[in-house]
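Why do we care about 3D structure at all? Because function follows from shape, and shape follows, mostly, from sequence. That is the central idea of this module. The next example makes it concrete: a single protein chain, its amino acid sequence, and then its structure expressed as tokens.
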Amino acid sequence: MSARTLVVVRHAKAGHAPGLPDSERPLTPGGERDARAAGEEIRRFAPGLVLCSPSVRTRSTAELLGLDAPVEIERDIYEAYPDDLLGVLRRTDGEIASVVLVGHNPGVHELVAALTDARIDGFPPGAYAVIELDVPWEDAAPGTGRLVHLSHP
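And the structure:
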């Protein structure tokens, strides 16, 4: 079996507006720019699927990445812990070799650390990590991945 590639993306920089629910926060102009730039780099991993939180800022990030892959909105990614995110990954079709997951901190930061046993000092908005896994998606678990690239906007 060939390695699987997981690209974990923290949504790009979002703004705050009084009275606006957290899930409705839009990206800032800088966040939009960062998401487009990240997409230029992430495209080389030829993702077959994008798993995305339902929030406005994550959906906008996923769209601005400009990837040629279907986007599945997964409610379980919003306000998720690493175990929740692993549950989403484990449901992924085994035929898909490369997946992008667009979510929120602290869950995405903790997921990268758990999968790779890497010490990551920060995972700011717009950051992404590329992880190789030598196990099927259904067997993704702490320690089963290798961090091959980390990018900050």
